Amino acid sequence: MSEKVLCVDVLNFSAEFMGGSISKHHPQWPKLNKIEDRVSRFVNASTKLGFKVVAFLDESNITPETINKWRTRREREVRGNERNIIQAFGSFVGEYFKRNNVEVHYSLEADNDDTLVSFAFSKQACILSEDKDMFRYTHNGKPLNLTVYSDFHYDAKGDIVFEPHPYQHAPLPVDRSLREVIVPPPKTNAVNLDFRILLIKEKPFVSRGSPSPLTRNLGNIHHTLTPLRQAGYYKANLSIPIQEMFPDWDIENNRVKWIEQTVLPDSKYLDLLENPIKALEAFPDPRKLTERVPYQLIKHHEMARKIVACEIISSATLIPILNLLENFFPELFYTEEEKERYAKKKEKPFYAPASHQRQPRPNSERQHRDQRPIPPQQPIDRTDQRSDQNRFERPPYDYQQRSYQPPSFHEHPSGRPNYPPRSSDYAQRAFPPTSYQSSVAPTYPSRFSGYTQQPEYHRPPTAPQSAPRGYRQEGYTPFSYPVQQERYQLPPSYAPPSYRAPSHHTGGVPHGAPTQQYSNDTLFVTGLPEGADENSLVELFKDFGVSNVKLPVHRETGQRRGFAFVKFTNEGDCNTVLEKDAPFHIGEKQVSVKRSKK
Asked: Taking residues 192-205, what's their average pLDDT?
């Protein structure tokens, strides 16, 4: 089998390689070994299918063309306390692809899509990407004839299956902008985290997002570790000013703000590049938690701090970030005991109890209904039944016997019994009342109206057992004569408790009816403005005798809840307030007044 090249847009499949679904409901960040297992499985399965995998990833520093789109996403993450993908995921998955002897390219001179398509065109390779922009590239005005897959999955045997892209043979929209493929392919970088890339740029610019889901509460980790990053610039032999930008939260204005700063390389904290643990101790979070947050987000924040510190050290010293994390933070990986326990749990078979296991049916029942043999047709006697013109219509109804005549067993065109459809109204038409049954449902008089009892029709106990649906059985009759099941008859004078008339035992309230008791001297006032207090309510009802005012507050925040209970000296003043037609106002806001419940 000839080996084919498969160019993979890795970040398009973050959920598949990270494990679990990527959603806004704070997904669990995996142990880093889980990413390694998924990458190894993908590479091995693709190699078994005859593909040579080549991975393409976006370089860490984004391009100016995508800055607006990138800023919008980062602001949404900070505002909603979200961080769905683990920090430095591109670096992790790139390193694991390298450990599986896969060629990895980080886009450097051009966009990642341009780089991937250019490389695939030069090698006549296949592409694995769900992005439909892969079809907008042309060469000399002609579209590229490349095979593009949009997704992959594993079958029951563990083999990988690639799904063709839906736009592979479909025309793109007319407004789709075409782009000429780059020939030869642009340059790429084999290492993602490298501060030396800034030397080849006209304007050194570093943009970072929100590495933690708690940036809004504890501040941006990139801003906190700025002195360590300056030491990294110095370690990478940079001597030019670097412009940095990352999002943070403005507590005073309650919105996202962007921190733009220009920093110079500094050797003050050069010794902290040797130990990320000491670096994290030297630069703690600038803010403290002031509200309750899920413990899972706190774990993600601590994990993000460790990863960002190792990112900076890796960019300055070119030591692989995974090696730093394995040496200083082994808790981010599965231990050998956890690996064995996870493998045993995964390979443990499941045995259902014998009572829950599905029992095999006879071979004759496994056949499809249309494949079962049909006995030879028997002559049909239509002397007293229907004519040839309407022989497939509903059988006649005998008004003298008041019974339903079942059709002939082999009269259906397919030779099978003509089963009635599963419908209640069809049963009413197919089984009309017999002589000993009333055609009108009996109505029982009582002190309430509308209570009727409908007769029920059931198969007689002497009727033969029904054959399975679609089967023939000697002596089986598709229709059976209706009988009324004997049941307990309700007495004529019975009425449910909720419909009974009021009595003196319930204080004039109907039985079962919900009762509401209202206070005679207390009013419930709602719609209060934020600045309303007891004096405002006393001033509002100054023409009436107010004895007490209660303003409930929230038990956690201590703020008023926007309503109050006003108690008057007597019942007359309370009724006078309710009978008043003019609305009540506190300031410019109208409040509503009604009687309070006890």
From this structure: 71
Confirm if 306 and 329 have CB atoms less than 8 A apart.
yes
Q: Are 210 and 247 in contact (CB under 8 A)?
A: yes
Question: b vs e for 244-267, b when ≥16 Cβ sit within 10 Å of the residue's Cβ?
Answer: bbbbbbeeeeeebeeeeeeeebbe
Contact 552, 560 (CB under 8 A): yes
Residues 223 and 248 sit within 8 Å (Cβ to Cβ)? yes
Whole-number Å distance between alpha carbons of 229 and 193: 12
Name the DSSP letter for residue 330: G
Coil vs helix vs strand at 192? coil
Q: How far apart are CA 407 and CA 386, in angstroms?
A: 10
Query: Do the bridges between strand 142-143 and strand 137-139 make them parallel or antiparallel, or are there none, so unpaired?
Result: antiparallel
Tokens of 378: 């028997």
| Residue 385 and residue 395 in contact, taking contact as beta carbons nearer than 8 Å | yes
Q: Of all helices (H) and strands (E), which one includes residue 43? A: helix 32-48
In terms of Cβ atoms closer than 10 Å to its own Cβ (0-12, 13-18, 19+), residue 202 is exposed
Q: Give the C-alpha separation, 92 to 339, whole Å.
A: 19
Tokens of 207: 């943009």
Q: What angle do CA 309, 311, 316 make, to 5 degrees?
A: 100
- Name every residue whose Cβ is closer than 8 Å to that of residue 588 and which is 6 or more positions away in sequence: none
Cβ(260)–Cβ(244) below 8 Å: yes
Mapping DSSP to helix (H, G, I), strand (E, B) and coil, where does residue 135 land? Answer: helix
- Say how far apart CA 20 and CA 38 lie, in whole Å: 11
CA 518, 522, 527: angle at the middle one, nearest 5? 100
Lowest average pLDDT, out of 193-197, 222-226, 473-477, goes to: 473-477
Burial class, 121, CB count within 10 angstroms (exposed 0-12 / middle 13-18 / buried 19+): buried
- Reduced 3-state DSSP string for 502-524: CCHHHCCCCCCCCCCCEEEEEEE
Is residue 354 within 8 Å of residue 363, measured between CB atoms? no
Q: Which two tokens stand for residue 482?
A: 């209706």
Give the least confident one: 300-309, 424-433, 434-443. Answer: 434-443
Please state, in angstroms and as integers, the Cα–Cα distance from residue 410 to each residue in 351, 406, 414, 467, 485, following that order: 46, 12, 8, 16, 31
Asked whether 58 and 115 are in contact (CB, 8 A), the reply is: no
Among candidates 34, 106, 96, 38, which has minimal Cα distance to 323?
96
Give phi and psi for 345, each to the nearest 5: -65, -35
Q: How many CA atoms lie within 13 A of 61 on its CB side?
A: 23
Q: In this predicted model, what pLDDT tens digit does every residue of 328-387 receive, in sequence order?
A: 998 888 777 776 776 665 555 444 444 444 445 554 444 444 455 555 555 555 554 444
How far apart (Å, rounded) are the C-alpha atoms in residues 470 and 237? 84
Task: Report the alpha-carbon distance of residue 8 to residue 57 in Å, rounded.
Answer: 9
- Does residue 563 sit in helix, strand or coil? strand
Q: For the segment 134-187, what is each residue's pLDDT rounded down to a tens digit?
A: 888 888 888 888 899 999 999 988 899 999 988 887 665 555 678 889 988 988
